[in-house]
Design goal:
InterPro entries: ALO_C, FAD-bd_PCMH, FAD-bd_PCMH-like_sf, FAD-bd_PCMH_sub1, FAD-bd_PCMH_sub2, FAD_lactone_oxidase-like. By secondary structure, this protein is α+β, with helices and mostly antiparallel strands. About 35% of the residues lie in helices and about 20% in strands.
């Protein structure tokens, strides 16, 4: 292709996209009834005329255009006509939500911290930012990533000792991604953003059989095989997106990941965050060694009984002796520390199990829920789910009774499967996922516009949810077609800015209760629909392998995690969440430590987590009163 031909093709593609975007803007301002059909045109245009690079370029252009406050006020003025005051869209705030707040090291007093949703916040007595990593300009290529941050470790230890002298509580915070008050503290708050210096394959003090990779038995596609896995050392405050960068630099990858990469790795582990895959455990299952600073400033390196560390080499090391680090290799203690909900100490660093970089092939296909349910129940559910490395289902809690056909009135769902792809699929190599959702999610004002769209058209939410499911189908027609890439791109859900405006509650169920739980959710949602209280998104089923951590939702058995999602600001969603949570808990649900809206109390926790009392013994050993916060105390004292 000549340079002139390339230029003409580029110009044509950009011209088409620009006209479609301009047309959509006109429809939004002057003819909102036409917006749905114009979005379909935009969807097709982005899919066929716009590469990933071009999409990002257009996102940046649109964000630049809508940045001035007077532009946002003009849009507000058009959209808020005849809207109830509490449902008006507000676009002209000075600050949009970003991936993370940045906290300066030299401002320990008069700071404020809040979780991402804004329902819990702290104004602590002191605010610490320990560690010597570079959060703002993170790069795994930096030479410092090859070293361990002993100075930062000592700083954390001294901070804990000083806190105890003043009889203060201590709490570490990551990205504040939890909806619960699990991270809240009013005394000494520790921001972990700079505890990210170490990013290296784990070699130091490691047993020989683990240094250069080791075999792990896996069961994917109902076939048991061996995989070669590796060990990687990272800082406890590392954000998952930075960890993915570091692993990629070393030609490694996460074995699995949750739907968001904005969390810190410790935050994900300490609440048993998970992805999908009945043969894959939650993120906490990949932790093989954790270095924590507990009560009294004591430093522990905690591992299972058959841990990866060579005790002889470790205990004779001069740095270990200097800092008084105690190696504990004990299953009971490690299973308590793994999912510690922030109460066993400050996780300064950890060693994770990873695997060499790999590719995944993803396929997303729409079904009628009742037909899929019947298909899943024909045989053993585990066998059906484990036919793929990853298996997920998105279900519309409502039926679109305005559809023109009987099939259109059926309850829709989307099945996502992912499997290993040994080499790039040349037929799919130039393809992307369907563009519309990822494109919109990158636009800065989309999160604030979303609740307005749902509140303005709440009667159409069932149809809009069906449309969103349809748009997630791989874009070679309704039959699918697939998406193939390196695992980090396939597992990334591409939620962008919308991630900060959506919120969720989540519950675990044993496989034999999944379908009854789904029926209950649908029943409650349809009852509330009569009062115009609706969820603004489909709910998901994700299947996860059992995990030994005492406080993991998967502690007892393989689990289906059901996540209910809506958009912040949609009228009726929050009370519906509360109603659903109460009903599901009565039905035997296991709540997620970070995704819950109802109060937690002891009887509820002991029922859901039978090893809670065992965990309490180890919490007293490692964290004690120093690392208790109001959330844990309320559970224990209730």
């Amino acid at each position: 292709m000549s340079a002139l031909t390339k230029f003409i093709t580029w110009k044509k593609g950009n011209t088409v996209v620009s006209w479609v975007l301009f047309g959509l803007l006109v429809q939004v301002v002057f003819n909102r009834k036409n917006v749905p059909s114009h979005i379909e045109v935009l969807d097709d245009t982005l899919t066929h005329h716009c590469s990933r690079t071009k999409r990002n370029r257009w996102v940046n252009i649109i964000n630049f255009v809508v940045t001035p406050r007077f532009i946002r006020r003009l849009i507000e003025g058009q959209l808020n006509k005849k809207m109830a005051a509490h449902e008006c869209v507000i676009l002209s705030l000075d600050k949009d939500l970003t991936r993370d707040d940045f906290f300066e090291k030299d401002k320990p007093l008069r700071r404020m911290w809040s979780n991402w949703y804004g329902n819990h916040f702290s104004e602590p007595l002191k605010f610490f930012v320990p560690g010597n990593g570079d959060y703002e300009n993170f790069s795994p290529e930096d030479e410092s990533c090859q070293w361990y941050d002993f100075k930062g470790l000592l700083d954390v230890s001294e901070m804990v000792k000083n806190a105890e002298k003043e009889n203060r509580k201590v709490r570490a915070v990551g990205s504040g991604h939890a909806l619960t008050a699990v991270a809240q503290c009013e005394d000494f708050l520790v921001c972990t953003q700079n505890m990210n210096m170490t990013q290296r394959p784990a070699k130091q003090w490691i047993k020989e059989e683990y240094k250069n990779g080791f075999d792990v038995a896996v069961n994917f596609g109902n076939k048991k095989t061996l995989e070669k896995h590796c060990l990687f050392e990272t800082g406890g405050g590392t954000k998952i997106r930075h960890l993915i960068q570091a692993l990629t630099y070393h030609k490694l990858a996460l074995i699995n990941q949750g739907g968001s990469s904005i969390q810190s790795i410790t935050g994900a582990i300490s609440t048993s965050t998970h992805g999908s895959g009945i043969g894959i455990g939650p993120v906490s299952a990949f932790a093989k060694s954790m270095t924590i600073v507990g009560k009294g400033g004591k430093i522990f390196r905690v591992e299972p009984s058959d841990g990866i560390t060579n005790p002889i080499e470790f205990n004779k090391d001069e740095e270990v002796k200097k800092h008084g680090i105690e190696l504990i290799q004990d299953d009971e203690k490690f299973n308590a520390v793994m999912v510690g909900i922030g109460s066993v100490g400050i996780v300064f660093s950890m060693i994770l199990e990873a695997q060499p970089n790999y590719r995944l092939f993803e396929e997303r296909i729409s079904y009628n829920w009742e037909e899929l349910k019947a298909e899943m129940q024909k045989e053993d559910v585990y066998t059906f789910i484990n036919a793929h490395r990853h298996f997920e289902v998105l279900i519309n809690p409502y039926r679109d009774m305005t559809a023109a056909t009987e099939d259109g009135k059926q309850r829709k769902c989307l099945v996502t499967t992912r499997d290993y792809s040994e080499k790039p699929n040349t037929e799919q190599a130039g393809r992307e996922r369907n563009y519309i959702s990822s494109f919109i999610s990158g636009i800065a004002i989309s999160g604030r516009l979303s609740p307005w769209v749902f509140n303005k058209n709440h009667q159409a939410i069932p149809a809009m949810t069906n449309n969103s499911i349809h748009r997630l189908i791989d874009h070679r027609g309704d039959e699918g077609g697939g998406f193939e890439d390196e695992s980090r791109f396939v597992l990334d859900q591409g939620l962008g800015e919308l991630k900060f405006y959506g919120y969720a509650v989540e519950f675990g169920f044993p496989l034999e209760k999944v379908f009854d739980a789904v029926d209950l959710i649908i029943k409650v949602c349809e009852e509330a629909q009569a009062y115009q209280h609706l969820l603004a998104a489909p709910f998901s089923l994700r299947f996860v392998k059992q995990c030994d951590a005492h406080l993991s939702m998967m502690n007892q058995q393989d689990i289906c995690m059901i996540e209910l999602v809506s958009v912040k600001g949609v009228t009726g969603s929050l009370p519906l969440f509360k109603r659903l949570e109460r009903e599901l808990l009565d039905f035997g649900a296991i709540p997620h430590w970070g995704l819950s809206v109802e109060p937690w109390y002891r009887e509820r926790v002991e029922k859901a987590f039978p090893r809670f009392k065992d965990w309490e013994v180890q919490q007293a050993f490692f964290g004690g009163e120093t690392f208790k916060n109001a959330f844990l105390s309320r559970i224990q004292d209730s």
